[in-house]
Amino acid sequence: MAEQRDRSRQIPGTTVFDGAVSRQGYRINKFAMSFTQPENREAFMADEEAYMEKWGLSEQERQFLRDRDYRGLIDECGGNIYMIMKLGVCTGDGLYHIGAQLRGQTFEEFMATRGAAGAR
Amino acid sequence: MAKIVGGIGSSHVPSIGKVIDMGEQDEPAWKPLFDAYVPVRGWLEDLKPDIAIVVYNDHGASMFFDRYPTFAIGAADTYAIGDEGWGRRPLPDLPGDAEFSWHLAESLVYDEFDMTVCQELSVEHGFLVPMNLCFPHEPAWPVAVVPVAVNVIQHPLPTALRCWKLGQAIRRAVESCPRDLRVVIFGTGGLSHQLNGTRFGHINPEFDNRFLDLLADDPMQLTEMTHQHIMEEAGAEAVEIIMWLTMRGALSADPIQVHRNYYAPMTTGMGLIAFEE
Prior knowledge:
The complex is a heterodimer.
Chain A: H1 19-24, H2 26-33, H3 38-46, H4 48-54, H5 59-66, H6 70-76, H7 81-91, H8 95-103, H9 107-111
Chain B: E1 3-10, H1 14-22, H2 31-47, E2 51-56, E3 71-74, E4 78-81, E5 94-95, H3 98-110, E6 116-118, E7 122-123, H4 125-134, E8 144-150, H5 160-175, E9 182-188, H6 205-217, H7 219-222, H8 227-234, H9 242-249, E10 256-263, E11 270-276
Parallel strand pairs in B: 1-9, 2-8, 2-9, 3-6, 4-7
Antiparallel strand pairs in B: 1-11, 3-8, 4-5, 10-11
Helix pairs in contact in B: 1-4, 3-5, 5-9
């Protein structure tokens, strides 16, 4: 059986979403998954603090969310990009905005690295 | 007897769905992608499939990490359009063929592929974007569908070889159905892309084009790829490409390659390949 992962070879700048990360991020990801229901999107947008309280987010998660710090939610809290994208719909921040932040760039700096940025 | 008449590999980038909903297929940055599918749509019209088996992954529309299945199959007469967080797309529900799905499920499970059987399943961009690219949805979808969902988002994932063998088992399942059905199978996702970390936006056109070459000519070589190798070369989210091996595994040894395209304008190497039996 070939080893599917080689943990001695950390891939630079990369998180592999595995059991450890999924356990760590379970709460924030379940919170973000709730936004597949329109009424939950509305509840969050109406009162973010109350909605975070309802889901029992940690203070660290709440602060990253207040700061729109998606890098923190993903890298520090175990957020899964597909779930965090649902949060981004509510906060008005699209994938490339999140991605630029992950890269430590502005949106404009990131878009300038792409071949045909009209295809966003 | 039911038979597989064609196989399609297609990326499933979600923004493609938005472009379709907005009617912006002719925008200069998108046109090269949509133009490549025009002959594929014509080819499929001539091929007249009754059923499309679509191998895809759910990105958090119907499935969550509380119970994320490694392999699942839809067994419903209708599949609703899912809400992934940005509302339901304005598309008609997709017709299924529950009887055919249950036949596939029985054959697969007895063939030692232990599928989760889903009698209610809403589908999302991983499934819908390739369907949109290849078929009209007005006035109605022209085929019944069988969603086959694979876990490619929460490791441990099934191996590339396992996905290939699933395709072989799907072929046996289709061919053991006495109904006179023409079936096409889709492998979706990829090609190279990464959506997390400082490496967000990584793409590898050289890897992608070699993948397309080998998919046609030497797919067994691809079944030896480890997840580590795919992630290192093509990005963490590129592991989706193992689903293309399910499609290819369901075809005969030497199908005719009828279409191929590659376009990588933003953060994903968008591949297209089509084979006819």
